[in-house]
Design a protein that fits this description.
The chain is of the alpha/beta class. The chain contains seven helices and seven strands.
Amino acid sequence: MKDRLKGKYALVTGGAMGIGFGIVKRFTEEGANVLMTDINEEALKSAAAELTGNPGKALTFRADVSEEGTGEKLVENCIKMLGDIDILVNNAGIYPQMPMLIMTPDIFDRVYRVNLKGLAFISKAAAAKMIEVGKKGKIINIASIDSFHPSMIGLAAYDSSKGGVLMFTKSLALELGHYGITVNAIAPGGIQTEGASKPLEGSGMTEEQMKQMTAAFTARIPLGRMGIPDDIAKVAAFLASSDADYITGETIIVDGGMLLS
């Protein structure tokens, strides 16, 4: 299983930390060469330093997925720096917490530009290049359990953007199927990352309140723990491999059973 991505070339957005870094790490361990992009240049440098010695190489490129034209720029640089693109993982996302009654248009638009519009147009650019060269590629979108059910108050913008990711995945899979390009999504539940114990942007919570909320959330998970980035990365590696060649338009929920409760 360790070499099932050997010789593959992947682009991973939001790859410097958390779930994105977990995916880059797993991909390079399984032999893929990866261009990881992020808006945080210092985090990219730190992430790259941690990945030396893996069978696949990890290169970095700073990018803001919400900017116009980023899709074409990322695909162009993936091919320039790695030589090809077989796999796209749309992981970059933001989740400011703000009740809709005090939501501003700017914040709502920013969430959509990153979480949905950016994802859509990077997918368009990657798919166009795959079609141009006759490649049967893989597109993997990171959705959320909030695509199915709200997890807390204050995430209306995030939840609706992730609901959009779910339907965009199905629609694009239908559109690209006859080219042999698969499009799938992963819906993570609570994942323990660098920012998981910190108050969400705009929430007004203290760190102690955030810890209490996390403990209450964990208590509702049937498997009894928060996930780790590699729980998501292992599913991403499966979807990126030939093991998933006959799966498209699907969303795999990886939440320890949280939605069951």
